[in-house]
Amino acid sequence: MASVIVVGTQWGDEGKGKIVDFLAEKSEYIVRSQGGSNAGHTVVVGENKYKLRLLPSGILYEDKICVIGNGIVIEPKVFLKEIDELKNKKIKISNLKISDRAHIIFPYHKLLDELQEEDLGENKLGTTKNGIGPCYMDKAGRIGIRICDLMNKEIFAKKLKFNLELKNKLLKKLYNHNGFDYEEILKEYLEYGERLKPYVADTITILNKAIKEKKNILFEGAQATMLDLEHGTYPFVTSSLPTSAGACSGSGVGPRKIDNVIGVVKAYSTRVGEGPFPSELFDEIGNHIRDKGNEYGTVTGRARRCGWLDACVIKHASYVNGLDSLAITRLDILDDLDKLKICVSYKYNGKIIEDYPADLDILSKVEPVYEEFEGWKTDTRNIRDYDKLPKNAKKYLERLSEITETEISIISVGAGREETIICKNVF
Ligand code: GDP
Ligand code: IMO
Ligand code: MG
């Protein structure tokens, strides 16, 4: 038995969904522990493609228990639509458990997300406009409304009234907006509550009992290390904790119960939204990666910024997550390149920096120092055995492992479940 956390090491969209779906076969529980429907995890099973936002990728297996942890923020309308869409595709949803401690996103959170972005002007964060930041602000401000509140009509009505009066005052005074109608939201959300009720549970007890019973548990990261509120490129981050510590606090499982932490690394870098990105490419190679990799956001459809693999980022991720190993994805997207680069350090004011600077002013001025690699010019998609990978691909991967002092456990060479090379078992 084991508890395994899977986290993103870069700026999201590394292929966490693919890796979790692959590992889910051996797990009994799959847990999402933070973030919300800002996540977009695409999972390909045979001919079918599933785009998941809140549901754990384990939902695609019939027999797994899927958990939405206490650290999650749920927009019921989006979530119920996701459930309906999967039901229409004949996916069974009965094994879903939603934490009674998870927080709820309301229409005012989404509107405030938009208005705050407008206020920031050229400093905008490029959020997904899902209301994530404002909902976590209410949580930290201790006025948030939780799923357990929604399960109690009287308490919910009271809390909603209080929050709406506060938000409407803010919207009217600061933004000249009419605000929201209390009765309308109350009615809409009580209906959502009825539909969510069958799934609501004390997920902390469920998970800790499962650990005692020696079940395999897989924690599915969303967002990524560089978007982490503590460890990312603040303020160009999300409002939650996508790192491994966040998986523990967002699920109510203590850190000593975790056996293995895997960092998912896209074989190059991408970022959607604003913020520094030292190894970003603005040339033909960047365009080639975007086109071949179809690097457009699952949630917002925005073109992802593309760049070389940045080992300083992965090293930082290895530290702050306590990574045991790396799962490399999308190696196949680099198959045609003549030459490749890995950023191994930065140059700032004539000095070499190997660690990830906190100061965004420094980060925006650093010059990436690259090591160059010969391309492998071989289609890797059908390779299932590490030894059969082209020599130059192995050199590229082994150098990354060396710089980051972290071994590689999995290599993904295609979106499908079977397009995977196992270097080391993680369960
Ligand atoms: P996530 O948010 O980390 O789960 O990643 P996304 O799903 O947003 O983006 C990753 C995309 O890459 C998805 O479309 C996956 O189906 C796809 N994918 C994952 N691994 C691989 C791989 O090894 N090769 C290729 N070509 N596609 C992959
Ligand atoms: P997955 O799980 C990529 C980014 C947004 C923006 C910043 C803040 O699919 O990897 P937010 O709406 O969270 O307040 O936006 O975070 N962002 C993501 N980028 N993948 C994600 O999730 C993301 N979730 C948030 O683009 O820059
Ligand atoms: Mg994604």
Automatic annotation (TrEMBL):
Its main location: cytoplasm. Pathway: Purine metabolism; AMP biosynthesis via de novo pathway; AMP from IMP: step 1/2. This is Adenylosuccinate synthetase. Substrate binds at T298, V299, T300, G301, R302, A303, R304. Homodimer. Keywords: Cytoplasm, GTP-binding, Ligase, Magnesium, Metal-binding, Nucleotide-binding, Purine biosynthesis. It comes from Brachyspira catarrhinii. Pfam families: Adenylsucc_synt.
